[in-house]
Design goal:
The protein has about 400 residues and is of the alpha/beta class. Helix content is about 45%, strand content about 15%. The strands form two sheets. It has a seven-stranded parallel β-sheet with strand order 4-3-2-1-5-6-7, with helices on both faces. Helix 2 (about 50-60) links the parallel strand 2 (about 35-45) and strand 3. Helix 6 packs parallel to helix 10. The longest helix is centred in the C-terminal third of the chain and has 24 residues, at about 370-395. The protein is globular.
Length: about 400
């Protein structure tokens, strides 16, 4: 593929979560535009084969992997010039490489918070695909971004859509943000229908191909709840100015409604390479091999209100914002533990909802003011969630707070 912007400065890129779906898509973009990007650092988990392939192809200065494969990866890359590190400290080192212009934060879950926190320190662009960084860190992360002079660019397709729609428009004229949701694999089902949902059914998403945790979040609509919380911090808007509509075709990625009743929508085929490319390239419109939208073939676009009875996630996310303090953090950690338990066969699908309710009800009102305090809160919320999973799994009764 030809290089359309040959006179532009090459972007130094570090990627947290390089073997996940977001990370692999980002490296596809780098592969298509080798003169536009250089890979400085990669951090991944336990995928030995993919880690080796990526390191040999892109030759990062630093590669961090899970402790369990560190020795094998180090030996396999001897003589390549790639420095191999391990675990959370290794991921933080990748994030903190000072001469990387952009950090793509795409580690799934709360595990992405600490390395993203370190990546903010040099004051670079943070292309944020790890929504938990803002869900768990909230105001504390935003304060650090401002203090260090970093720049936050969203990667989630919904937040990228809002970010793109707002280019050149003042926030003072915004009436509301409209997040679109695919509705997941269980759209139209009732609460009782979901009681016997299997792992395989929940992992069968109708539109997007994602990792198991995010796919389950989409099935419960908690993914949309977390996006609501993320939008509150990304765009500094209250929860009552953020609405969710179910849009099954996933063509309109989200919308902004203005006070003059105008609505701006960002559209495109459902392919994450679009928002990833926009975030890591400095908002350039690069050709990346994504199919163009055929409106005639697409046909009808439909919209529905969310079913809060069957899918309480959005309501609980809004409640967590109103509770302030550690509400969003507790909801997120409850979900991480509950999803793991469901995938392991330890919890029914609707049991995930019960864990959310019970843990959120225990969230303190005090706001953690440092990474250390956030980590302490994460441990407390995790312990509560694990206890709740154990009680539900054993059949012991426990009160569900309204």
């Amino acid at each position: 593929m030809s290089e359309p912007h040959e006179n532009l400065t090459r972007v130094g890129l570090s990627i947290l979560g390089s073997t996940g779906s977001i990370g692999r898509s980002a490296l596809d973009i780098v592969r298509s535009h080798p003169g536009r990007f250089s890979v400085r650092g990669l951090a991944c988990g336990k995928n030995f084969e993919e880690a080796i392939l990526q390191a040999r192809e892109f030759r990062p200065e630093v590669l961090s992997v899970d402790d369990s494969i560190y020795g094998r990866v180090r030996d396999a890359l001897t003589g390549t010039g790639v420095q191999v590190l391990a675990g959370g400290e290794g991921a933080c080192a990748v994030a903190a490489i000072e001469h990387a212009d952009v950090l793509l934060s795409a580690i799934v879950g709360e595990a992405g918070l600490a390395p993203t926190w370190e990546g903010i320190r040099p004051g670079r662009t943070i292309a944020l695909a790890n929504k938990e960084t803002l869900v768990v860190g909230g105001q504390t992360v935003i304060d650090r971004i401002r203090e260090k002079g970093a720049r936050l660019v969203p990667v989630d397709s919904e937040h990228s859509a809002i970010y793109q729609a707002m280019r050149g428009h003042p926030w003072s004229g915004v009436r509301r943000i409209i997040l679109t949701a695919s509705g997941g694999p269980f759209f139209g089902k009732t609460r009782s229908d979901l009681e016997q949902v299997s792992r395989e059914q929940a992992l069968n998403h109708p539109t997007w191909k994602m990792g198991p945790k995010i796919t389950i979040d989409s099935a419960t609509l908690l993914n949309k709840g977390l996006e609501l919380i993320e939008a509150r911090w990304l765009f500094d808007v209250p929860a009552d100015q953020i609405e969710v509509v179910v849009h099954r075709q996933s063509i309109i990625h989200s919308m902004v409604e203005f006070e003059d009743a105008s609505v701006l929508a960002q559209m495109g085929v459902p392919d994450m390479r679009g928002p990833i490319s926009y975030a890591i390239s400095g908002e350039e419109r690069l050709p990346i091999g994504v199919p163009f939208l055929d409106l005639v073939k697409t046909g009808t676009l439909t919209f529905f209100g969310p079913d809060h009875e069957t899918f309480p996630a959005i309501r609980l996310a809004a409640r967590s914002i109103l509770r302030a303090g550690q509400g969003a953090l507790y909801l997120n950690m409850a979900n991480e533990i509950a999803v793991k338990a469901f995938l392991a066969g330890q919890l029914p699908f609707t049991g995930i909802y019960e864990i959310w309710e019970r843990v959120l009800a225990e969230a303190p009102e005090v706001v953690p003011d440092s990474l250390g305090e956030i980590r302490k809160a994460v441990r407390r919320a995790t312990d509560l969630a694990m206890e709740a999973v154990s009680r539900i799994g054993s059949g012991s009764p426990a009160p569900v707070h309204p």
